[in-house]
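re: ur msg from earlier - yeah i can do the magnesium ion complex, just paste it... oh wait u already did. ok heres what im feeding in:
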Amino acid sequence: MEPQQRSPLLEVKGNIELKRALAKAPSRLPLPGSRLKRGPDQMEEDLEPEKKRTRGLGTKVATSRPRATALTTVPQTQGQTAVPKVPRKTGPPCSTAIATVLKNQKPGPAVPAQKPGTTAAPPVVGRKKPSKRPAWDLKGQLCDLNAELKCCRERTQMLDQENQQLRNQLREAQQQATALGTERRTLEEELARVRAQAEQGQQELGNLSTLVLELEERLGTQEGLVQELQKEQLELQEERRGLAAQLEEQERRLQASEAALSGSQAEVASLRQEAAAQADLLANREERLHGLEMERRRLHNQLQELKGNVRVFCRVRPVLPGESTPPPGFLLFPSGPSGPSDPPTRLSLSRSDERRGTLSGAPAAPTRHDFSFDRVFPPGSGQDEVFEEISMLVQSALDGYPVCIFAYGQTGSGKTFTMEGGPGGDPQVEGLIPRALRHLFSVAQELSGQGWTYSFVASYVEIYNETVRDLLATGTRKGHGGECEIRRAGPGSEELTVTNARYVPVSCEREVEALLHLARQNRAVARTAQNERSSRSHSVFQLQISGEHAGRGLQCVAPLSLVDLAGSERLDPGLALGPGERERLRETQAINSSLSTLGLVIMALSNKESHVPYRNSKLTYLLQNSLGGSAKMLMFVNISPLEENVSESLNSLRFASKVNQCVIGTAQANRK
Ligand code: ADP
Ligand code: MG
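and the outut:
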C-alpha cells in the first residue's frame, strides 16, 4: 500500500493536509434552520414502535450510535459523493483528526456507494420519499421501517468496519508516534551531542586560536633568534676562516719545530752524555772538596792551637763623657816587633806610688806594669774589629770544637758592651753574641752546599750568689724565674742541662735579637727587685750546635758559650760594714770565689791535674764541657781607662796574665 511506504514525517504532513482539507471542505451538513420534511421528533415518533419492539438491537445501536436520530437525517442532507472519503485508511493518525472525521461523517450516507448491488439500501438522496402511508397501512409502514432498519444495520456494519480501520490506523499512528518520539529523542540527544561537540569544537577553536597567537609570537621570537644565529654563524664562519689560517700557520711552525726538535733531541742526547760525564766529574770534585774541607778543618784547628787553646785579649774601653781624662802615659800600647802595622799585643800601665814620693821628698817615678796578651784592643777599637779577631774561633764550634768566650773585668769596664753590645740597637755597636750567631748562620748556610745540615738551640742563664736563673723565662716566671739546677742530660751522659730553663731553637738573627731583648727585660725586672744585680752575676749564653752530613754519616756537636762575668772588683776591707755592705760583701765573696775557681780550673787543666775542681762553683760546673779537653777558650779582660780604677785594672790584668800562661792540651773535635 502506498501510504504505508511513506516516511512517518511525510505521513504526519499528509494527515495535517488532510485535516486542513477536511476543515476547509464545505459542510454538507444541513444548515441550521433548514427545514426538514420530517423533523426529528416526528422521526422519533415514527421509530418509537420499532424501538419498543427491538429494544435489544436499539440498545446496541445506541451504544455505537449515540445519536441515532442524527443518522436518520444524514441521508436527506448528504449526497453519496461524500461517502468514499470516509473510509480513507490513510487518515490522520491522531485521535483529534479521527474525531473530526467522525464528526464530519456523522451526517454521511448510511450505505456506502461501493456496494451498488445492494438493492435493499438505496441511497437516501435522490430516493423518492415514500408518501405518507395512511394510519391503517400498518403493513406498509412496517415494510418501510424494516427497510430503514436494514439500511441502518448495513450502515452500522460499515461504520464498525470503518471504526476498526480507524482504530488500526490509530494504532499504527501511535506506533509511528512512539517511533517518531524515540527518533526525536535520539535526534535530540544527537542534537545535544552535536551541540556539545560544537561547543567543545568552539572552545578548542578558541584554544587553538590562542595557541596560534602564542605560536606566532614564538615564531616571531624564533625568527629573531634565527636571524641572530645566522649573524653569529656568519661571524663564526669568518672566525673559523681566520682560525684555519692560523692553524695552517701553526702547522707550518709545528713542522719547523719538529724538525728543530729532532735536531735538539740529538743535541740533548749528546748533552746528556756530557752531563753524565760532568756528574762523574762533579762527584770526584765533591769528594775532593770534602777532603779539602776536612783538611781545612784540620789546618784551621792547628792554627787555632798554634794561637793557643787558651787565649786572652785585653780591651780597654774609651773614656766616657763626664769622666776625668787619665794623665798622659797612664796607659800605653807599645807596637809589636814589626812596628805600628802589627796588631798591638802589649799594654803598659803606669802607677804613681804616692808614699814613695813623700819619703824621698820628690815625686817618685810612676811604676810601669807591662802586660802581653794574644791581642790588645785600645780604646778606639770597634766591635767589628774585635769580632774579626774571634770569628775564626767561633767557626771552630761549627767544626765540632767546644768554644768558650769570657768577658772579665771590674764593673763598668765594658764587659756587657763587648758581649751583647752598646745601647740603642745600633748595628755598629752590636756585641759578640749577635755577631757570632750571624756568622755561624751564614757559614752553616755555606756548608749546606757541601751536604752539612746544622741546627742551633740557645739558652741564657744568670748565676747570682750560686743560684741559677733563666733569663729567657716568659709568662709568670718572667723576671723571677724558678729555681734552676744544673743536671746531666741523662744517665751516663756528658751533656749538662739546666732544669726549668728554656732551650730555644734559633735559625736567624731576628730570633737571637728577640732572645737578647727578653734577657735584658728579665735582668731589668730583677734589678728593681734586688738593686743592680746584673753586675754581680754571671750571664751565660750557650748555643748548642749540631751538624750532620747525612751523605757521609758524619755528625758534630759542640757548645758555644759566651759568658759576661760578674764584676771582679774587691771590697775595700778598711770600710766600715753596715747591713747593706755585709750583703754586698757576701755577694762579692761569692763572685770572687767563683772567679778564683774559674782560674783554678784553668790552671788545673793547664797543669793536666787529675782533679779539676769544676764543681766548686756553679759557673765552672755549667761550663764543664766548654773548658778543657778539646775546648778552645778566649778571655777578654776589660779594662777601665780611668786612673781611679788603676788598682782593679792591675788585678784584672794579673789574673788575665795567669790565664794567658795556660796551655790546655791538644784540642780534639767532638766527632761521632
Ligand atoms: P760592664 O758590663 O763591665 O759593667 P758596661 O759594658 O756596662 O760595663 O760598660 C759601661 C759603660 O761603658 C757603658 O755605658 C758602655 O756603653 C760603655 N762602654 C763600654 N765599653 C765601651 C766601648 N768599647 N766603646 C764605647 N763605650 C763603651
Ligand atoms: Mg755588665
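cool cool. Residues 415-416, 535, 564 surround magnesium ion (ligand 2) (CB under 6 Å). ping me if u need the other ligands too
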